[in-house]
Specification:
The N and C termini lie far apart (about 45 Å). This protein is mainly β. It contains no helices and 25 strands. Strand 8 (about 65-70) and strand 9 (about 75-85) form a beta hairpin. The strands form 7 sheets. Strands 3, 4, 5, 6 and 7 form a 5-stranded antiparallel sheet that branches. Strands 8-9-10-11 form a 4-stranded antiparallel sheet, with no helix packed on it. Helix content is about 0%, strand content about 55%. It has strands spanning about 1-5, 5-10, 10-15, 20, 25-35, 40-50, 55, 65-70, 75-85, 90-105, 110-115, 120-130, 135-140, 145-150, 160, 165-170, 175-180, 185-190, 190-195, 200-205, 210-215, 220-225, 230-240, 255-260, 265-270.
Length: about 290
């Protein structure tokens, strides 16, 4: 039971959506699931660092992938739209599916749409630049993923890298960490098989140039996050197995690596427990510095 922000209800943090800190580390935004009778409703919540002062943010119903601006005054989030229709001999089928990005002004409570609805187009916010003027996001257009940046007025939309996702600005704004797609891999078990594309960690300049792969894996590496010093990156590693493939969004290990690709280190791993979205708390005195190895 969470009590705060003038309301009392059953709220569960949505496990497959990373929390997002303000630049001073004093506020955190997260996607929560509110149980209203027998229905589960998604909203975005804001809280103090210690988990107090929890507030349901207006205009964020259905919100996913919440990202707080460095000054804590703007929130980016994703919203999904689907439409079904009946087809002869097929029953109900999805004829329209899109995910768009929205911006909430926390001061005024106004919400506006940043990216358009388009069938087959999905966009999920990932990271604000340190000055808050640019939003990096993951875009999937008809199964073609890319890392993209856009100004908050909707101008200067720029593809930073193809076959990439989860772009995250470094604390000084000069670099991006992201995940890139590797070559497809097939796993088999008891006569069943599944093919997927591994994702690997990479860094690039803030404009997407000089993309450099940090890791080589046959698994999935997800949701990179910079430490406040800008010298190491945390992420999750998921090793898929066929009978558990529905857990794709969660990682089975929390990892760290230096920004130059050295000293890859497993921080946490618990059998049959999934992790998602490790996120460094920013702010002075919280710099971790490079890993020694």
């Amino acid at each position: 039971m969470i009590v705060g922000g003038g309301f009392k209800s059953k709220v569960l943090p949505f496990p497959f959506s990373s929390p997002s800190w303000s630049s001073d580390g004093n506020r955190v935004a997260f996607t929560g699931i509110e149980l209203v009778g027998k229905n589960a409703v998604f909203n975005v919540y804001d809280a103090a660092a210690g988990g107090t002062e929890i507030t349901k943010l207006p205009g964020t119903t259905g919100g996913l992938s919440a990202v707080l601006s460095p000054d804590g005054r703007t929130l980016a989030f994703a919203r999904k739209r689907e439409r079904e229709a009946r087809r002869p001999h097929r029953g109900k089928v999805t004829v329209f599916r899109s995910v768009s990005i929205w911006l909430l002004s926390i001061d005024s409570g106004t919400v506006r749409q940043l990216t358009p609805w388009r069938n087959g187009l999905s966009a999920y916010p990932s990271s604000f630049s340190p000055d808050g003027s640019i939003l990096a996001f993951s875009r999937d257009w008809q199964n073609r993923p890319s890392a993209v940046s856009i100004r908050l007025d909707g101008s200067e939309e720029t593809v930073l890298a193809g076959s990439a996702a989860d772009p995250a600005y470094s604390p000084d704004g000069t670099r991006l960490a992201m995940t890139t797609l590797g070559r497809p891999r097939t796993i088999s078990r008891k006569g069943e098989s599944l093919t997927f594309s591994p994702t690997e960690l990479a860094v690039a300049a803030a404009d997407g140039s000089g993309l450099t792969r940090l890791t080589r894996t046959r698994n999935l590496e997800l949701t990179p996050s910079w430490d406040p010093s800008g010298q190491r990156i945390a992420y999750v590693l998921f090793s898929p197995v066929l009978n558990d493939f529905s857990a794709l969004a969660a990682g089975d290990s929390v990892m760290e690596i230096n920004a130059d690709g050295s000293c890859k280190t497993k921080v946490l791993s618990v059998p049959k427990v999934g992790f998602f979205g490790p996120t460094w708390q920013p702010g002075p005195g919280r710099e971790a510095g490079p890993i020694s190895c």
